[in-house]
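Hello forum,

I keep getting stuck at the same step: I have a sequence, I want structure tokens, and every attempt I make locally crashes halfway through. Rather than fight my setup again tonight, could one of you with a working pipeline run this one for me? It's a single chain of 111 residues.
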Amino acid sequence: QSGVGVEHIPPGWDTWFGLVGNSRFYHYSVSNNGVEEKHGNDYATDYFTDVIKRQAVTFIQNATKEPQPFFMYVATPAPHRPATPAPQYANKFSDEKAPRTPSYALHGADK
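Reply #2:
Ran it on my machine without issues. Output:
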């Protein structure tokens, strides 16, 4: 834990939408400008990658109405574990294997 509550908005941010705790795609909470927003397991409303996509699109649509520049930082938990794909992609590549070069999984200075 970071030692700060969901109501904490880091200094310098005018708008804050941040995951509370570790990476999860369902059953998580976010800090939406310091207010806890809980999410469940409904793909249409709760899949975290899509939630932050919608949040980012709305932010850009609103920010571009103003003449001043803006900064937006979006960090998705994908592709980190838990690797929970959106339902429409769950079996999309089940027969595929990522390419492996001869140096795959080798450790050391000579890699």
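The first strand starts at residue 17 and ends at 20. If your local run keeps crashing, start a new thread with the error log.
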